[in-house]
Amino acid sequence: MKLKDLPDESPYTPGDKACGGCMAANIAINVMRVLGKKAVVSVPPSCMSVFAGIFPAINWDVPYFHMQFANLASTITGISRALKALGKDDIVAVGFGGDGGTGDMGIQALSGAAQRDENILYICYNNEAYENTGVQASGSSPYGSWSSTTPAINGGNGNEYFPKDIPRIMIAHDSTYVATAATSHIQDFIQKVEKAKNLKGFRYIEVLSVCPPGWRVPTDSGPKLVKEAVDSGYWLLFEYEKGNLTLNGEPNFDGLREFFSKQGRFDFITEEQYKELEEFYKNRLRKIKNLQLNNQT
Q: Of 46, 56, 86, 240, which is least packed with CB atoms within 10 Å of its CB?
């Protein structure tokens, strides 16, 4: 599918209650433009459940289920199996989860679904914190970043842990399809969603989602920041399918310092912390390249 062929209308309807500049809403709109009406959606407690799923102002023009925090993968697994029993194999069971509901509270159900190769599509919109409940740090929050539970002051501190790499955890399950995406690279994004739509088995796509209040950035900065995240090596684009891993583009780490400098959540990192961050993201690229090399041998 080319961008010009993408339908103008989406089963995710306009008029949600998302914060100004929220990239999660943009992700939902475009995923649903690709999937169309033949989908059943589930969302756990998260930003998206609040701004798009509170009755009667529900923005999903498809069957929609709201479930508990840890249950998203289990819920769409049940939906998928029910659809199969009804002979409706052309309908996609899709879940949208934030990074906390995916990599923290939801990881047990997610791991089980991946291990069983359940026929589901799981979209993680990763905004790197529990943004909806007060910007608490999650397992995906960057090292050194400010949050309400990891206060940063002059002299450094902030979050003391490096983030989980959920896509690599999913690859370790030898899943049918695992990919990362960014709305700034829209052609790559829609092609990955379309590929996942047409596959059977466990499919996982993680998309970087800028949260202006949580990242402490202007409301209009999201699209440009996402592009800078990819170009600087902060966010890698790759896909894993049938045992083969492909890196979608080679990042240039020259812009990494500038990328951090534009976000208020990194205002207090020290030079030592920056060097640790830089090495972390360079090392993550090396790990993905090693996986790619091992897949080819």
A: 56
* DSSP one-letter code for 5: G
How confident is the model at residue 2, as a pLDDT? Answer: 86
List, in sequence order, every residue forming a beta bridge with 98; answer none if it has no partner: 125
The HSE-up count of residue 97 (CA atoms within 13 Å, CB side) is 30
Is residue 6 exposed (0-12), middle (13-18) or buried (19+ Cβ within 10 Å)? middle
Structural domains for the chain: 3-138+164-250 (3.40.50.970)
Take residue 251 and report the two structure tokens written for it: 């990042």
pLDDT at res. 57: 87
Buried-state track 89-99, b at ≥16 Cβ within 10 A, e below 16: eebbbbbbbbb
For residue 206, what are the CA distances in angstroms to 29, 152, 197, 296?
15, 27, 15, 24
Task: Collapse the DSSP code of 45 into the 3-class scheme (helix H, G, I; strand E, B; otherwise coil) and give the result.
Answer: coil
37 exposure class (CB count in 10 Å sphere: 0-12, 13-18, 19+): exposed
Residue-wise pLDDT for 223-264, tens only, equals: 999 999 999 999 999 999 989 999 999 998 999 999 999 999
For 217-233, b/e burial (b = at least 16 CB within 10 A) is: beeebbbebbbbbbbbb
Find, among 170, 155, 171, 132, the residue nearest to 46 by Cα.
Answer: 132
Digit-coded pLDDT (tens) for 31-86: 999 999 999 999 999 999 999 999 888 999 999 999 999 999 999 999 999 999 99
CA torsion sign, 141 to 289 to 276 to 262? Answer: negative
Instruction: Please give the Cα distance from 46 to 50 (Å, whole number).
Output: 7
